[in-house]
Amino acid sequence: MTAKRLRIFALLAISMVFLLAWAFPIIWSVLNSLKTDSDVLAYPPKLVFAPTLEAYRDVLFGSGSILPNLLSSVIISVGTTILTMLMAVPAAYALARLRFRGKKFAGFYVLATQMLPPVGIIIPYFLMLRNIGWIDTYQGIILIYLSFSLPFAIWLLVSYFEDIPFEMEEAAYLDGASRLKTLWRIIIPQVRGGIAVTVVFVFLNAWNEFLFAVVLSGNTVRPVTVAMFNFVSVEQTLWAKLAAVSVLAMLPVVVLGVVAQKHIVKGLTVGAVKGGGRR
Amino acid sequence: MSGQGQVSFRNIVKMHGEFAALKGVNFDIRPGEFFALLGPSGSGKSTTLRILAGLDAPTAGRVLIDDKDVTSTDARDRDIAMVFQSYALYPHMTVAENIAFPLEMAKLPKAEIAPAVKDAARKVKIDHLLDRKPGQLSGGQQQRCALARAIVRKARLFLLDEPLSNLDAKLRLETRAELKKLQRSLGVTAVYVTHDQEEAMTLADRMAVFMSGEIQQVGTPAEVFARPNSIDIGGFIGNPPMNLIPARYVDGDVIVAGHRLKTTAATAGERDVVVGLRPGALRMTEGGVGARVDLIEDLGDTAVLDLDCAGTMIRMRVSDGNIPGEGDTISITARPQDIHLFDPATRMRL
Amino acid sequence: MATTAVTSAGIASEAPRSDFGRVLAQRERRFAAALLAPAFLALLATTTFPLLFLIYTSAFRMDLAMPFTNGFVGSENYQMLLSDERFWTSLLVSLVYTGSTVALQVIIGLALALLVMDMKRGQGWFRVIAILPVVLSPAVVGMIWRTFMLAPEFGIVDFLAINAGLGSKNWLGDPTLAMVSVIAIHTWQWTPFAFMVLLASLASLPEDIYEAARLDRASAWQSFRRITLPLLRPAIVMVIIMRTMVALTAFAAIFTVTAGGPGTATEILNLYAYRKSFTELSIGYGSALAVALLIVTIIISGMLFAMRRAK
Predict the structure, then answer these.
(1) pLDDT in tens, C192-223
(2) What residue in A sits closest to B103 (Cα-Cα)?
(3) Domain-embedded: residue B350
(4) What is the pLDDT of residues B298-327, one digit of tens each?
(5) Residue B39 contacts C where some CB pair is shorter than 8 Å
(6) Which of B200, B219, B236 marks a domain boundary?
(7) Is the ipTM of this complex over 0.85?
(8) CB-CB neighbors (< 8 A) of B59 in chain C
(9) Count of domains for chain B
(10) How far apart are the C-alpha atoms of C78 and C84, rounded to whole Å?
């Protein structure tokens, strides 16, 4: 083999190792979710086995069904996304395109709120909600989710809003459109792509959230990230079922990730250029 | 049309902090006129247009349209249509929707909008493109779409901010002619901003020449060409530009490179001046000012000679076949009425 | 017709001053305020107000288990904090954790980006697979690593270790190994982010400077060191800043894997504050710890932003 061929082979090998390393844990979890508990514990680990949907059946329809947890996650994520977008879109437009005193301060404030460590927010929040009895409620948990989704959404949207040429607004203004009409008919249709990307990110982050969920959840509100722990305890771990729950918890975000892949990458890199971003 | 589009600017001043973008601008535009605002970049012409449109507010002064003071009137209420340099078309709407937008905003009934859109599109010859989106149009077609959107409103004033600068040279020439024809057929008052003096010269009925935030001259193209008010204007208008030579004025004559030339001025006295000579006004003669031919730019039917006249570079246009050779020394002169005199300090016409 | 010789009126003081500009600006201000109000109110309520409350709470002793000891204690919590060995240990763990994972993410991410840049085919595969770890919940990631990767024997990592001759290791029970594990997990999840950002950055570099360098007979390494690296600097700094912020406040990934254990071996400051507040129910002191974490975050981001500006 020539030196060049060797080099290419080495590079290919390294790339394969990394691809495998990143894909494997997920694939392995999926495989494990299709095993019986004894198969999971088998040594050496079985790559070939008789697959069964037993774990999924138990986890979805059995006594410890996580369907209410999945529903919880959906309600929280959708609620957070809608509320966030309703507030973030106008705010981002104002920050990106309007001129007013204190604009720099406003922008800095949004950026600064992202630097707060979540644990610093959850402690006072817990105390406050406790006093008004909002622990284990949807409104309580969605509200605090705003603390991380709003600044991120605003920052991401600002970069999309900034891309629209200023003259377009002036043309619309001269054509007789009011400021609101201009925003609604002219500007927003053009940032449709950016809005879609932001929606994906906000939903993702809300679905994946753990700390706030674990402190504020109870019997009514218990998203699937917290429900995972139902299957782990000091005495025993329900392996296959845990795998199934993990897969179900991963499912929506993986689907979103693959489908919206290009947009997510663009969103991540745009966010990296302009600064900010939680995850 | 709610008026005829007569415009008056009275002492308009625009300050940006300490910087004076407009130092006191006055002019009148007659109804139905094609009026050009000409000047180099940063001279204040675009600022003036935007103040006329109502997109920016002046620091002081008044704007009147059809004798009504509109200085504090909203842009939307001034009955003005504008074509932007970048066209500012709405990319997510079709051509038809773009053109229909101003009518929609004016709450015109749907039944009336469609024929108006078709009519406007036909006037600029894009009625076959109504279902396309701006992204699918060529530069020239986009420009027409912007035009159609502006004319569909039948506004009394039409503002154009360097609408041709994004087109390639050939398209620019074609569109120029069509623009003028369109304006004539619509009979609307047009205010046209450009930095291209050739464009202004060919399109405008009258023009205002801007330099550093002031208007230095208002007049027809012929007037501005024949009697420029300042050195800057003289050097700006005309291609190749006017030759500007420092010289000495003595009792009605000027001494250029040691040679005396008669002028139309009659005042006695001696002073320093700057002499302006258009390349096309120079003639070869016997016993005139001596100059050496440095370079010949042969353009086919005419030629431009780069002459060295006692250290100063002068350009001369020759079109009658008697082209001297490079390195030759020739003798040139100009008629008294073609010799422009400027004050070297104020840069203004004497 | 005589040309109109116009004299400039100068900065005319007799010309009426226009108020229209002020009217326009005011309208814009009002519109902006209306658009920003909901978001700002929400932010104030969910970030600023809780923060102030947190600082307030940190001046109290608040033990939910022993309410009779509650009361205002001023800066006592902070004094306790400064002499608390567990605090300093957790701070050290935080710094080691953050520093290691960010460095690894950048180095590996950069190496991979350089690798993939040259690949003509297969870039698509990388993009699809790279996206997966990044979109997952850190809690779920922690869980699957804890169980299916690091569990003794049937966990894949342990299986590979046994077969490589290292023997079965107590990945999560041994303090040093636990630290290595959590760092590795965090790195596993977030390196693809660094990879994607740096790859995009690399792709945006103009080709012609490399051709010029080749003509100037620069070696591949020199090209990299003198051209690529400086041009990538802004992107690398951005990645470092973002990943540092996340690593400092990472919670779920460590919580689900070791919960801070064994003992306090992987207890980052974040986790210590949580445990103090919600497990030991000493909310006053926990608040002080959280405030300490905030201060540390601000200091570190200050340093990083200064590094960013120093070009």
Answers:
(1) 999 988 988 888 888 888 888 878 877 777 77
(2) A175
(3) no
(4) 888 888 888 888 788 889 888 876 778 888
(5) no
(6) B236
(7) yes
(8) 17-18, 21
(9) 2
(10) 10
